Amino acid sequence: MTAIGRRDIELYHAAVRDSHAPATANRHLALLSAIFRRAVEWERVEKNPCTGGKMFRENNASERFLTESEIAKLVQAMDADPNRTAAAALKMLLLCGDDTTNGKTRRIVLSRALVALLQAQNSRGVSGWIFPGRDGPDKPIDNLTKPFNRMLLAAGLEKAQIHDLRHTHASMLLASGGKRCR
Fold first, then answer.
1. Band of the pLDDT at 173, cuts 50, 70, 90?
2. 1-60: what CATH class?
3. pTM (2 decimals)?
4. Residue 24 to residues 59, 62, 93: CA-CA distances in angstroms?
5. Is 16 helix (H, G, I), strand (E, B) or coil?
6. Which helix (H) or strand (E) holds 173?
7. Which residue ranges make up each domain of the chain?
8. CB–CB of 81/147 below 8 Å?
9. CA end-to-end span of the chain
10. At 47, is the secondary structure helix, strand, or coil?
11. pLDDT tens across 53-97, in order?
């Protein structure tokens, strides 16, 4: 470890980026930095050669839009899924999108379909959360990835991300002149 210098780390980081995504290279650099931090704590090396290393810019954005037939299959899988809370939360994203990506507040008009979905939630009067988590009514549902992937599989759809529901909602709304999802 004492023979590894900053230039070695930079070369390794660049080599990983050449064969993988920038995010993967950055995770390698973060892991190496953690290892060297511990080695400094244990007095195995004098300094961390990763310190000051620049992370690569990561662009993890994807632009996947579900077609109308894919939406129908996904909604059918949502309706059949045993996790009713997750299914409802995901349907909500399809009906209205989700938080803005810039962190600013945005007001939206709720469609009739979305109002009906929210009113149908069992959590009313039991929990302060519209979509309570499995750990009880005091915590919200915190991870929709597993149920979403399960529903995609049940619908026979190719890999998609939860954020794609937001893209799909926005594109469908624009395509319909803002009259969709009423």
1. low
2. mainly alpha
3. 0.61
4. 12, 16, 29
5. helix
6. helix 163-175
7. 1-60, 68-175
8. yes
9. 62
10. coil
11. 899 998 766 677 888 899 999 999 999 999 999 999 999 988 886
